[in-house]
Design brief:
Blueprint (H helix, E strand, L loop, with lengths): L1 H30 L3 H13 L4 H24 L5 H13 L5 H11 L4 H8 L3 H14 L8 H8 L3
């Protein structure tokens, strides 16, 4: 009897997960590609007759948002401005990292474990281990150095 209840609970949870995934997908589509809106805002800022220092602050902010949106689109994830800055710095220091490796580095920095990263990236656990090994090499870390510690200590943000 208890097994049947567990199976029913698992089925209900699977339905809930499916609903949540579709909600996330819908939200991602709604929020997708804000760059054209930001470019339009930037153009409108240029035409405003306001103090040049205020205009510069607003323009810089808009440019940072455009850069964040561009990086997020390239990596196929939504990024905060701090996460985009982290990716920018990491990519600048290690230009040999692929987009997928950059995304995985961000997830490692956010304390995701291999299984969680593999699941969210749609790769096998073994595949994740292989990618992590390649990242370790590309970052130039020694055998016992931690990728997480390296990313946390060298790329604040």
């Amino acid at each position: 009897m208890e097994m049947l209840e567990l199976q029913k609970e698992m089925a209900a949870l699977k339905v809930k997960i499916t609903e949540n995934e579709s909600d996330l997908h819908r939200i991602a589509l709604i929020n997708a590609d804000n760059a054209p809106i930001l470019h339009n805002l930037l153009d409108q800022l240029q035409t405003l007759e306001i103090d040049s220092s205020h205009k510069r602050v607003l323009t810089d902010m808009c440019l940072r948002l455009i850069e964040t949106e561009t990086t997020a689109t390239r990596l196929n994830i939504k990024l905060s401005e701090i996460e985009a800055l982290f990716i920018f710095r990491l990519e600048k220091k290690h230009p040999n990292l692929s987009n997928r490796e950059l995304k995985i580095c961000l997830l490692i920095k956010h304390d995701y474990d291999n299984k969680e990263i593999a699941r969210t990236s749609a790769i096998t656990n073994r595949g994740m281990e292989s990618i992590r090994y390649k990242i370790h090499k590309k970052l130039g870390l020694e055998k016992n150095d931690s990728i997480k510690i390296y990313l946390t200590n060298h790329f604040l943000g």
